[in-house]
Design goal:
The chain is an all-alpha fold. It is about 60% helix and about 0% strand. It has 15 helices and no strands.
């Protein structure tokens, strides 16, 4: 796997390379075994179809996905060492995965509580294993703070600065608005799991936010919801406190980003809406009546 290239469309004679692989690592099948042990099988010298488009390593990829999920579901004290060994031994297979970033995002999304409260180290190794071996180098589009956190072996060491969230939203917003795709010119979108730079950047930024660890003294499921709400509040405040005159664009960026995250991140939006309604009602009461505030001359009952 390490000697082959996952970008097979760039190899001039891929058939020759793949055939050489099977000559070095032959795979025996039913009829081959039958011939070896029983000459009456298919007849001596019978031809079989060659395997030009698959091999054992490629067929291991969907099994690897399932094994990783089952290991996450097992108690950490039993499966931690196994999961780390599997990721470190078979991580190169992710270079041939049809949708490695989507698999990573879905895994972090579905197992958000377990990974955040019990498996911080395994989560970092999983993210590194998926992203480091991809040929189009998605690590280049991650934040420097996040990359440093991924490569650290110390548990729960990263607490993002306030500027981190602002840079993350601005980075995604720039990609959404920009028509210049030269930064992604080395990516062949015909063979990529995503069809454009916006989808790629959206998933990468969502992965970053889902990987932000809990404080070392509050690694509990009860605090996780509060922690996610805190992150969501910082993202919402970036939009509300922006004075650049591009509020609709930033609202669109924030909405797209929150849609790719677990629902706990969006609670900040609901609370902010409730807070605005509460302040508005209080302001109306201080002015006298709802009718006078809204410019309505006929008295009527208002329910908010």
């Amino acid at each position: 796997v390490g000697r082959s290239s996952p970008d097979f469309w760039r190899v001039g004679d891929w058939s020759h390379v793949h055939t050489a692989y099977h000559e070095q690592f032959p795979e025996h099948h039913y009829w081959t075994r039958t011939e070896n042990y029983n000459d009456r099988g298919t007849g001596s010298g019978a031809a079989t179809l060659p395997i030009y488009y698959t091999n054992l390593c490629l067929r291991m990829i969907p099994i690897l996905d399932i094994v990783i999920h089952r290991m996450i579901e097992l108690p950490a004290r039993h499966s931690k060492v196994w999961l780390i060994d599997i990721l470190r031994s078979y991580s190169k297979l992710f270079a041939y995965h049809d949708a490695p970033i989507t698999f990573l995002h879905n895994t972090l999304f579905y197992y958000d509580t377990v990974l955040a409260t019990q498996r911080d180290l395994e989560k970092r190794i999983l993210v590194r294993s998926c992203l480091e071996h991809l040929s189009f180098k998605p690590m280049e589009y991650l934040s420097p703070q996040f990359i440093k956190y991924l490569r650290s072996e110390d548990p729960q060491t990263w607490s993002p600065s306030p500027a981190y969230f602002s840079e993350l939203v601005d980075r995604l917003d720039d990609v959404i608005k920009s028509a210049d795709t030269s930064e992604f010119g080395h990516i062949n979108w015909k063979f990529n799991e995503f069809g454009n730079p916006v989808c790629l950047m959206l998933y990468l930024k969502a992965i970053e936010l889902m990987c932000i660890p809990l404080p070392p003294n509050k690694v509990t499921g009860e605090y996780l919801s509060e922690h996610r709400h805190s992150i969501g509040t910082k993202l919402v405040d970036i939009v509300l406190n922006n004075n650049s005159g591009q509020l609709p664009e930033l609202c669109n960026t924030l909405g797209i980003l929150l849609s790719a995250l677990p629902i706990s991140f969006s609670h900040a939006v609901y609370r902010k809406i409730f807070e605005i309604i509460r302040i508005t009602r209080t302001s109306m009461k201080l002015r006298g009546t709802y009718a006078g505030c809204c410019g309505i001359t006929r008295p009527r009952m208002f329910w908010c």
